[in-house]
Write a structure and sequence with these properties.
binds magnesium ion, about 575 residues, 3 domains, 15 helices, binds adenosine-5'-triphosphate, alpha+beta, Rossmann fold, YbaK protein, BirA Bifunctional Protein, domain 2
């Protein structure tokens, strides 16, 4: 491709609202242009990257036995009503009406559509297992679209769905092959990633993994063991029940005045006590109307709502109790609450079980208790895992202790079991002629997010650093003075022709710009291999070759330049 014919639109400065390196660089390199919040045009340069990602994904999906189809972006409401998600999905689902006032939505994912197709097409065990995928635009009306295409409203996803006669087949023919294909995809794209166990929500079990690209800016937190393969999203990573005896109490219960103290920080400051000595109270709605449940955890620990939602007697989705309800039950407001005198269900975090002499709200605004002890001052609560793990916690696998890292979720594999197939009656006849509900798995990859995640992981002060597999062009030829110098033009054209003939994806930057601009652009664009051609070098029959990651260029003979690049691409 010649740059003069292609479209390059680079910027010196990134827009002020771009916070992440990847967002800034994608805009500066002209890969994307914003149209509205969370909506982007993929410009020619960016689209080339997107297509390369798609190509790798397609190859590995095909290799794993998945079959491509293409489902629509606009989906009928009836299917979503059948699965129950028309109600459940909430505002992220963009709903629309057609001219006949019929309800539709913009597909955020395609479980309903594929299940509808499969239940009509597949009737016998002989047609199972099957795995379908497509690469298609999705729409999610995200609360906070941000970080460019990382969390957009419209984005491209590869989603696959597998259907099976039984659970063994789901794991053996669906989940495991997809898991392996994902590893190959992310390996080929050169990402530093980690598969981590993930929450399965109401489906339960252990059948879900996220593929997390490790990056400081990631929105997810991953906990992993320093002594084993254990890795899980912090949403899921369990804390263990403590061993040994409870510490004996040394203090009597005492009610102390704490005027205007409403947070743990102000409590710690006001009483000058260690935060580990405090308990915080979280009040959520119970399963039955009007019921509330009190959750207690150490002041320095972070509440984990996903764990709490699964506790017996707690309403799902987790709902914090309204201030009026709290006031009616406790006689006090949030910030002054505790278990003393509370008659309802109380859960306390495992980390609290062996402690004594806690400082906690007194159910009287502006008052706290010191020297609070379970069993003595209030009934023993039920102990449960309510918090996020912290660095240094013992690993739930039993080996080593946990460390934390941040990640960007680029893929997700999930054993759906019969969640959709039962709701939508996707049944088949087994070998005994008996009707059975299919087992189902789903497997997503954020195609557009991968582009941002790769840049987040690989960039420097000068721009993007692509791997060969993802780069918009594998190599760039930068001629200095292409228009004026015949020697430079001839050498550039010759190397360009050689590389094209060999099938390399090469950009000849023949734009009429200063050499400095061309060089800076090639670095901003992150093209992995570069040949610079100038009159001075040509006098000795030389050009310069460098990788994007090299600090210095090598001088190579003009005749060997193309071969040099091709050898590097093969390596
Ligand atoms: P997240 O927790 O980041 O919102 P999710 O759990 O909602 O992701 P899935 O429903 O599993 O995501 O979708 C599959 C993949 O689609 C994700 O792994 C991610 O790579 C991508 N994805 C999801 N939401 C977005 C978005 N708003 N913008 C870009 N990519 C997205
Ligand atoms: Mg989401």
């Amino acid at each position: 491709m010649k740059a003069s014919r292609f479209f390059i639109s680079t910027l010196k400065e990134a827009p002020a609202e771009a916070a992440l390196a990847s967002h800034k660089l994608m805009i500066r390199a002209g890969l994307i242009k914003a149209n509205a919040s969370g909506l982007y045009t993929w410009m020619p340069m960016g689209l080339r990257v997107l297509r390369k990602v798609e190509r790798v994904v397609r190859e590995e999906m095909e290799r794993a036995g998945s079959v491509e189809l293409l489902m629509p972006v606009v989906q009928p409401a009836e299917l979503w009503q059948e699965s129950g998600r028309w109600e459940f999905y909430g505002k992220e689902l963009l709903r629309l009406k057609d001219r006949h006032e019929r309800d539709f939505c913009m597909g955020p994912t395609c479980e309903e559509v594929i299940t509808d197709i499969v239940r009509k097409e597949i009737t016998s065990y002989k047609q199972l297992p099957k795995n379908f995928y497509h690469i298609q635009t999705k729409f999610r009306d995200e609360v906070r679209p941000r970080f460019g295409v990382m969390r957009a409203r419209e984005f491209v996803m590869k989603d696959a769905y597998s259907f099976h006669a039984d659970y063994e087949s789901l794991v053996r023919d669906g989940y495991q092959p997809m898991y392996d294909a994902y590893c190959r995809i992310f390996d080929r794209l050169g990402l530093n990633y980690r598969p981590v166990a993930a929450d399965t929500g109401s489906i339960g079990g252990t059948g879900s993994h996220e593929f997390q690209v490790l990056a400081e800016s990631g929105e997810d937190v991953i906990a992993y063991s320093d002594a084993s393969d254990y890795a899980a999203n912090i949403e899921l990573a369990q804390t263990l029940r403590l061993q040994g005896e409870r510490r004996p109490s040394e203090k009597a219960l005492e009610k102390v005045s704490t005027p205007n103290v409403k947070t743990i920080e102000s409590l710690v400051r006001f009483l000058n006590i260690p935060v580990e000595q405090t308990l915080k109270s979280i009040v959520v709605e119970g399963e039955n109307e009007g019921e509330i449940v009190l959750l207690l955890l150490r002041g320095d620990h972070e509440f984990n709502d996903i764990k709490a939602e699964k506790l017996a007697g707690v309403k799902a989705p987790l709902t914090f109790a309204a201030p009026e309800l709290i006031r009616a039950q406790f006689g006090a407001d949030g910030g002054s609450l505790g278990p003393v005198g509370f008659k309802g269900k109380v859960y306390a975090d495992f980390a609290v079980e062996k402690g004594a002499d806690w400082v906690i709200g007194a159910n009287d605004n502006g008052w706290h208790y010191t020297g609070f002890n379970f069993g003595r001052d209030a009934a023993e609560p039920e102990f449960a895992d309510l918090r996020n793990v912290v660095e240094g916690d013992p690993s739930p696998c039993g080996k080593g202790s946990l460390k934390l890292a941040r990640g960007i979720e680029v893929g997700h594999v999930f054993q759906l079991r019969d969640k959709y197939s039962a709701a939508m009656n996707a049944a088949f006849l087994d070998s005994n002629g008996k009707s059975q509900i299919m087992e189902m798995g789903c497997y997503g990859i954020g195609i557009t997010r991968i582009v941002a995640a790769a840049i987040e992981q690989n960039n420097d002060g000068r721009g993007i650093i692509w791997t060969d597999a993802m780069a918009p062009f594998q190599a760039v030829i930068v001629p200095m003075n292409y228009k004026k110098s015949d020697a430079v033009r001839e050498a550039a054209d010759k190397i360009y022709a050689e590389l094209c003939a060999a099938g390399a994806d090469v950009l000849l930057d023949d734009r009429d710009e200063r050499a400095g601009v061309l060089l800076a652009d090639s670095e901003l664009l992150g093209i992995p291999h570069r040949i610079v051609i100038g009159d001075r070098g040509l006098k000795e029959g030389k050009v310069e070759y460098a990788r994007r990651t090299d600090s210095e260029a090598q001088s190579v003979a003009v005749e060997e330049a193309a071969a040099k690049v091709l050898a590097a691409l093969r390596a």
